[in-house]
Task: inverse folding
């Protein structure tokens, strides 16, 4: 009996699922009527998709052994441009089909900007040969800077009412952001495990040199990975824009570290070659349960940061064979 | 039946300014017996604040008193709160749409002009000056500086602004380095006006190291506890602020009034210092609650 | 020194398990001062494991170890080093970022227990050791910038710099060409004369029998044979290692009317190779040999597009192939099995089947989705065809032995149905049994009409596989030899001349 | 530097610095003055100490993003503790306390990385959150400007002081000596001790290091403890010099510091890094960050400028290395 449990828990994802469930149960027990209320569950579903999508963006780059520190910069830049279209061309008063058309156009523009920013990052990594951490650190500053220069630093607002649907709407009682996230997570999971591109990017992450020797188009791969990351960031930017009913160069500044933390907690190997979307989803859920639960208990928000860090290190220790070996040696001697 | 709960949601938890505000909130709770409490995100990020408000709505508070990090970003979530029947009162957000009342200690442009007036007086109405903002993305800071510059242009033609608006990222070290650079790039600069509470401290430090305490004039928004040592040496000549504890108290009080169906009227006395005769402009309640502090009266404000 | 002295090293009943796998089982082993012992065995038979235990790098699960009669507890690298046991690891274990001098002197300075690093002293030690070996390498060169031979020699010098009483060499000759091997064997003889014992691991049986007094054979972690080297010859040693007879047969002659498959003309890259031209016919196995630095690996890479030549043409079935683009070369039907399996060939932590299938991803790309069933099915077919010994195709390829790993890389390329296959060192670090099986695969491929280019300096291997041989020197082709016109001694002379 | 090698980061960065200075001097001749120099040196102290630590970690083959949190923790906790229990201690004791505190936090990184062999990036990402969260939750989150008297006193201790033509002062605080000491000590450790050589060796190949008997665990542990102590020192100097203990300070600088170090030629893969290069990298970043007003770059374009600088500074050597590799192949 105990052996089957421990063998079921042998994968990092299974252990994460256990953690997510434990956190959920713990919070539900501490304050059942509030934590389990439909209100609270919906509220959580509105909150996490924006940074969860950024975590997906970070995840795909981490699979190749890289990282994308420009995700927040990209999401703000694309949101600012989309917002400018919505605010100054479409205008606040646009309604009906016109408004929807402008919304779609602005989304297309945002996605294109995200992809172009990603292409820029990819080119720096693939053709210039820069370490991704520095390439995207620098480009992130530039993207944010462009957003500041475009807006002079102030918020862009005054959208048609239709724009609010993306971040605030419900479809059959399910929040639109949640649907969007589920869709994107499924797409990324599909890309990673079911497409030639996905398998190649994992193989590249596992050994970039061998990937080149195996006649994989390494440069094209990197360009596409960072473009995917950029496009995902742009979607997150549109969500933030819709939820804030405005766009600004410095929205979501706390999301960068958070999305990296989630990806790593989700079991993605930051040195490349391993990672599952389901792990990232479970990590996001644990984070959100924890954070809403702690708000409910009026625990200081600084403590939340502390708990996230402890959780991350704890998960790493649990997953580490070395720690297990040391503990075992301890017990036998 | 459960007691009324009012959540005051501030920009960021734990800093002096909002700790002082919390004193007001706590005092209100004590005075009235309501469950009034204050929360704030760990990072200065509008999205974190929005998430926090979401959680408060889900928790079912009766009223929200919000000091928005970025008013635009909170419109949808505050709308959701009001749709859910929660009373919403804001502070430092005159442009906020989804609020029942916004309480302003003063008109931002007027406050900026007030600081400029003191700066100009100190400078003798002539010479070069530089301005600092915490971030270019902060609406409040922008309005203060707009008001200040407009006041200078209208009244002190012999004064000239040098350089751009210097961005300090609410970081004293950055304010210090920027002030140093301003002193190098514009050796004739005689005045500086800061916006973030750490700006004058950074500027003051640079002034002191240059030994220019008596040759320059420095004014800005800050708190006595932050600027004290520079006020003492004259590196900073004066600061302006409003008492956040009173603002916090006022927000809670107005929220309770709305819940009780009482009306807020122009010229009304909220019974709070600086809010004895409020001016009502649409949904915005203006007080005359700014305080100017210099080396002489700083001891009166122990926060 | 007499036989009554306790042996330098005496292992009794040593057992080592890796999470269930028994890598060594109850092995007894002794070595005396001034003796050269050869450790032989197939891939995965436990040779490196035994060495790691002696070196204190891995703990043993059971068994006793005595150094000069003194029983040892848990060993550590330092304890072993202090007892005079020095190892030249299979992968050299050098520090690529440090200078030659420092690499050579590092162990010595560590044992000296001093807290300070004495640079002048380090240089003196290094210079002396290099002189003793009789090679000339710049003391200040960074090891990463050295050619493989010099890295190997640096590793040897590091071991010699210590007052070693036993030097263990784990496959030290894989990276060396015939000439350097001769130098190394000379060094070993001198060491023996100085009373230093040598434990030598190699898959090249000829050189083993040349320098060693005693042979110990491992199979599946057990000692299966032990005796004076004079009692063994290549055939009997092979039988002891594999438990069967392994025969190498020369290739069938090439059909006279075999069409020209690949044509290389005027291929040059400044400072690397010059004016290379040759034809490769369908069904032909063409050997390319030469000393290290002769430009043969660069040429191989250039044929596959990994190196961009300055001038020249490569055509395949009459169609020109763009230079310097591995994707186009691969698409045109050229395959390349790299020299360094571990860093260039394999994705070590990925599954065996993924390592095969990675070459076929585009072929199974069905619009938006991969045909996974087809992909894995084909990969497993190839694993079966090349008889890769594995327990689970989803296990990481790291868990395979060297010979089987090499077959995985081969399978990847064969699955793509190439027209020309370039094999750079196809049997480096592969045991005799597997080696002959890989040679059989090469011959079978040629039979099917593939053109095969084998780059190697293993003479028996070249003779066993190639119809024709090109010898490179200083970046030029200096000699062309028809396989049937030569034998090992003749070939050796012509290579070294 | 016998012959000028353009492929070396140090040389490239030095050239970029010279070009930048020439450009700044052309656009404003006052740029070349003693106050500019003293201001830049002063503003490089904290970044410099941090960079030396970050360089050491990179050389050992790791990466540390938690040192800013350690600095903030050590600085703030020391201040709070002193104000509560011993406000009158002399500055060197205060500094020692902060360094010990930093070293203790470094121990936590050390145990997780050296003993449990967890990946350094993840560990330090985690401890960054833990240290900061713990500090703000349990120690405090308010700025303290009423520092212990000797901390303030320290900020007034000047090594060099002089008067400009217009009567204002320029000065270089003694805190700069701390950077010099840190650099000299680290140079000594790295180049003159077996410990230092072992750090390089581990960065080159930790497996090889283990095999020749280097105590990898101990060496790695030392690295993180030493870096923790340096961070504590940088933190307390920062608080003293700015006469303010702000627990929100410093965190957020970590990536810029690492960028400066890589700019100076250290490799993220480990084993490579020089103090000269590191200091040049810091110099370039400090120079640019403190010359944007002089150059008349509008505030809205300042972050773009710094972004471009990082891309150019790290991109050029990367591109050259890539080309060299392609040529050699
Ligand atoms: N770290 C390890 N973990 C698990 N199994 C291992 C490990 N190292 C070696 N093994 C296994 O132990 C056995 C003996 O391996 P060893 O490396 O000693 O073989 P070898 O004789 O040196 O082979 P080769 O000729 O290929 O170098 C093999 O089955 C191998 O897979
Ligand atoms: N108690 C022990 N019993 C057997 N082998 C051991 C023991 N302790 C360590 N070893 C082995 O010795 C080798 C080195 O040990 P380890 O990796 O713990 O140390 P290190 O990281 O090299 O540095 P340090 O010596 O400072 O601990 C390892 O291969 C380990 O398995
Ligand atoms: Mg003054
Ligand atoms: Mg081996």
Result:
């Amino acid at each position: 009996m105990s052996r089957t449990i421990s063998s079921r828990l042998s994968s990092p994802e299974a252990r994460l699922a256990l953690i997510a469930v434990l956190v959920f149960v713990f919070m539900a027990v501490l304050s059942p009527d509030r934590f389990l209320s439909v209100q609270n569950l919906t509220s959580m579903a509105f909150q996490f998709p924006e940074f969860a999508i950024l975590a997906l963006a970070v995840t795909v780059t981490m699979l190749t052994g890289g990282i994308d520190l420009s995700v927040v910069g990209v999401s703000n830049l694309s949101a600012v441009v989309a917002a400018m279209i919505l605010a100054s061309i479409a205008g606040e008063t646009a309604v009906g089909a016109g408004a929807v058309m402008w919304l779609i156009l602005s989304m297309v523009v945002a996605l294109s900007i995200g992809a172009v920013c990603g292409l820029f990052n990819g080119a720096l990594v693939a053709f210039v040969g820069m370490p991704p951490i520095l390439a995207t650190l620098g480009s992130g500053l530039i993207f944010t800077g462009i957003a500041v220069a475009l807006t002079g630093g102030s918020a862009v607002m005054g959208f048609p009412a239709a724009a609010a649907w993306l971040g605030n709407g419900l479809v059959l009682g399910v929040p639109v952001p949640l649907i969007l996230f589920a869709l994107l997570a499924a797409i990324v999971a599909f890309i990673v495990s079911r497409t030639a591109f996905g398998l190649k990017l994992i193989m590249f992450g596992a050994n970039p040199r061998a990937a080149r020797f195996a006649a994989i188009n390494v440069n094209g791969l990197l360009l596409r990975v960072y473009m995917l990351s950029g496009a995902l960031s742009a979607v997150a930017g549109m969500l933030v824009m819709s939820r804030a009913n405005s766009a600004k160069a410095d929205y979501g500044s706390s999301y960068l570290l958070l999305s990296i933390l989630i990806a790593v907690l989700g079991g993605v190997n930051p040195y490349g070659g391993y990672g599952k979307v389901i792990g990232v989803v479970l990590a996001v859920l644990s984070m959100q349960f924890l954070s809403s639960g702690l708000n409910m208990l009026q625990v200081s928000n600084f403590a939340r940061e502390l708990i996230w860090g402890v959780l991350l290190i704890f998960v790493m220790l649990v997953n580490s064979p070395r720690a297990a070996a040391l503990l075992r040696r301890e017990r036998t001697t | 039946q459960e007691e009324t709960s009012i959540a005051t949601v501030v920009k960021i938890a734990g800093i002096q300014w909002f700790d002082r505000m919390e004193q007001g909130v706590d005092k209100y709770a004590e005075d009235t017996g309501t469950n009034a409490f204050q929360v704030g995100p760990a990072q200065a990020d509008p999205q974190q604040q929005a998430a926090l408000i979401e959680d408060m709505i889900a928790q079912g508070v009766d009223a929200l008193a919000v000091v928005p990090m970025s008013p635009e970003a909170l419109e949808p979530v505050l709308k959701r709160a009001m749709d859910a029947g929660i009373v919403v009162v804001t502070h430092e957000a005159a442009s906020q749409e989804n609020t029942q009342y916004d309480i302003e200690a003063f008109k931002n442009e007027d406050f900026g002009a007030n600081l400029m007036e003191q700066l100009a007086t100190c400078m003798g109405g002539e010479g070069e000056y530089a301005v600092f903002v915490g971030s270019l993305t902060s609406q409040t800071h922008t309005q203060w500086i707009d008001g200040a510059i407009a006041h200078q242009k209208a009244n002190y033609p012999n004064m000239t602004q040098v350089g751009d608006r210097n961005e300090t990222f609410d970081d004293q070290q950055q304010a210090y380095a920027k002030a140093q650079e301003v002193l190098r790039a514009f050796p004739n600069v005689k005045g500086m006006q800061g916006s973030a509470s750490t700006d004058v401290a950074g500027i003051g430090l640079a002034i002191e190291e240059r030994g220019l305490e008596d040759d320059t004039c420095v004014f800005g928004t800050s708190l006595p506890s932050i600027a004290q040592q520079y006020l003492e040496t004259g590196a900073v000549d004066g600061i302006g602020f409003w008492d956040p504890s009173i603002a916090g108290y006022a927000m809670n009080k107005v929220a309770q009034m709305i819940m009780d169906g009482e009306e807020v009227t122009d010229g009304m006395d909220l019974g709070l210092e600086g809010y004895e005769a409020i001016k009502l402009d649409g949904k915005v309640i203006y007080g005359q609650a700014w305080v100017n502090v210099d080396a002489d009266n700083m001891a009166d404000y122990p926060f | 020194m007499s036989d009554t002295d306790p042996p330098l090293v005496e292992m009794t009943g040593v057992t080592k398990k890796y999470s269930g796998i028994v890598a060594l089982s109850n092995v007894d082993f002794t070595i005396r001062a001034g003796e050269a012992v050869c450790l032989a065995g197939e891939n995965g038979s436990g040779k490196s494991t035994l060495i790691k235990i002696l070196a204190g790098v891995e703990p043993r699960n059971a068994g006793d170890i005595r150094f000069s009669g003194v029983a040892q507890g848990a060993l550590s690298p330092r304890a072993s080093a202090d007892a005079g046991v020095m190892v030249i690891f299979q992968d050299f274990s050098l520090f690529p970022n440090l200078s030659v001098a420092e690499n050579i002197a590092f162990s010595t300075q560590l044992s000296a227990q001093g807290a300070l690093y004495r640079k002048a002293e380090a240089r003196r030690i290094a210079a002396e050791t290099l002189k003793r070996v009789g090679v000339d390498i710049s003391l200040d060169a960074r090891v990463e910038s050295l050619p493989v031979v010099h890295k190997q020699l640096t590793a040897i010098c590091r071991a010699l710099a210590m007052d070693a009483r036993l030097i263990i060499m784990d496959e030290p000759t894989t990276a060396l060409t015939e000439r350097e091997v001769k130098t190394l064997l000379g060094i070993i003889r001198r060491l023996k004369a100085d009373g230093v014992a040598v434990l030598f691991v190699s898959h090249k049986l000829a050189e083993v029998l040349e320098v060693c007094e005693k042979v110990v054979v491992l199979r599946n972690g057990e000692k299966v044979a032990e005796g004076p080297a004079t009692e063994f010859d290549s055939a009997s040693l092979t039988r002891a290692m594999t438990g069967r007879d392994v025969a190498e047969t020369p290739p069938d002659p090439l059909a006279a009317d075999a069409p020209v498959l690949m044509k290389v003309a005027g291929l040059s890259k400044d400072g690397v190779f010059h004016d290379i031209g040759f034809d490769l016919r369908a069904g032909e196995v063409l050997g390319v040999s030469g000393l290290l630095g002769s430009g043969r690996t660069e040429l191989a890479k250039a044929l596959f597009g990994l190196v961009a030549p300055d001038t020249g043409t490569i055509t395949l079935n009459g169609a020109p192939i763009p230079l310097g683009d591995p994707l186009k070369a691969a698409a045109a039907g050229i395959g390349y099995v790299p020299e360094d399996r571990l860093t260039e060939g394999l994705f070590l932590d990925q599954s065996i089947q993924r390592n095969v299938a990675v070459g076929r991803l585009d072929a199974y790309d069905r619009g938006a989705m991969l045909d996974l069933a087809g992909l894995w099915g084909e990969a497993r077919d190839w694993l079966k065809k090349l008889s890769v010994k594995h327990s689970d195709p989803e296990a990481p390829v790291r868990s395979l032995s060297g010979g089987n790993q090499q077959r995985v890389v081969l399978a990847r390329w064969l699955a793509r149905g190439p027209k020309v296959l370039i094999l750079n060192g196809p049997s480096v670090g592969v045991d005799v049994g597997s080696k002959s099986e890989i040679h059989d695969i090469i011959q079978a491929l040629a039979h099917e009409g593939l053109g095969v280019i084998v780059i190697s300096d293993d003479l028996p291997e070249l003779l066993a596989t190639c119809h024709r041989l090109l010898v490179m020197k200083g970046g030029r082709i200096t000699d062309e030899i028809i396989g049937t016109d030569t034998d090992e001694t003749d070939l050796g002379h012509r290579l070294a001349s | 530097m016998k012959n000028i090698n353009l492929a070396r980061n140090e040389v490239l960065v030095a050239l970029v610095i010279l070009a930048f200075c020439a450009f700044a001097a052309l656009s404003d001749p006052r740029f070349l003055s003693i106050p500019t120099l003293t201001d830049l040196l002063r503003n490089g102290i904290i970044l410099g100490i941090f960079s030396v630590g970050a360089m050491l970690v990179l050389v050992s083959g790791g990466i540390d993003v938690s040192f800013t949190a350690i600095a903030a923790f050590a600085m703030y906790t020391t201040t709070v503790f002193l104000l509560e229990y011993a406000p009158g201690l002399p500055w060197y004791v205060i500094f020692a306390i902060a360094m010990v505190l930093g070293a203790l936090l470094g121990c936590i990184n050390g145990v997780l990385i050296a003993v449990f062999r967890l990946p350094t990036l993840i560990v330090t990402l985690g401890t960054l959150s833990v240290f900061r969260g713990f500090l703000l939750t349990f120690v405090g989150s308010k700025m303290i400007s009423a520092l212990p008297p000797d901390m303030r006193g320290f900020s007034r201790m000047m090594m060099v002081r002089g008067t400009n033509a217009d009567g204002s002062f320029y000065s270089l605080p003694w805190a700069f000596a701390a950077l010099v000491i840190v650099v000299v000590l680290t140079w000594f450790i790295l180049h003159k001790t077996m410990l230092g050589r072992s750090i390089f060796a581990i960065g080159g190949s930790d497996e090889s290091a283990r095999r020749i008997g280097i105590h990898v665990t101990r060496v790695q542990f030392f690295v993180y403890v030493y870096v923790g102590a340096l961070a504590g020192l940088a933190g307390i100097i920062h608080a003293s010099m700015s006469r303010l203990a702000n627990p929100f300070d410093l965190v957020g600088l970590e990536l810029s510091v690492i960028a400066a170090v890589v700019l100076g030629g250290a490799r993220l893969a480990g084993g490579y890094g020089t103090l000269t290069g590191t200091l040049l990298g810091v110099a370039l970043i400090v120079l640019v960050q403190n010359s944007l007003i002089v150059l008349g770059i509008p505030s809205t374009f300042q972050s773009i400028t710094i972004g471009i600088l990082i891309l150019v500074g790290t991109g050029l050597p990367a591109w050259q290395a890539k080309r060299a590799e392609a040529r050699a192949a």
